[in-house]
C-alpha cells in the first residue's frame, strides 16, 4: 500500500500529486482488495489524460469512468471546483483550460507573443 501512496503523491504533475495524493492518503487504509486494484488502474493512466478526465475537460473512456476510485476522485475534484471557482472563470466543459504558450496577448503591458 505504501507503494501506491507514493505513486499517487509523486506523479510529476503537481496538480495530480496534490489532488490524487491527498485523496489516496485519506482513503487507502479503508480500501479492500478491489479498491486497491482500482487504484492501481487509475495510477497507471497517463497524467495529461487523467487530469483532463478528472476536471471534465474531456470525457473519459467507459473503462475509466466505471472505475470506482476514478469516480470518487472525480467527484471530489468537481465538488472543489464548484465550491471554489466561479463557472465564468472556467472553460466550457470539454474544452482545455489553458491556451498554448504561443497565444498572442494584446494588452498594454503584455509581451508581444506568448505567455512568458
UniProtKB/TrEMBL annotation:
It comes from the Eukaryota. GO terms for biological process: mitochondrial electron transport, succinate to ubiquinone; mitochondrial respiratory chain complex II assembly; tricarboxylic acid cycle. GO terms for cellular component: mitochondrion. Residues 83-116 are annotated as: Disordered. It holds the Pfam family Sdh5. Keywords: Chaperone, Mitochondrion. InterPro entries: SDH, SDH_sf. This is Succinate dehydrogenase assembly factor 2, mitochondrial. It comes from Tetracentron sinense.
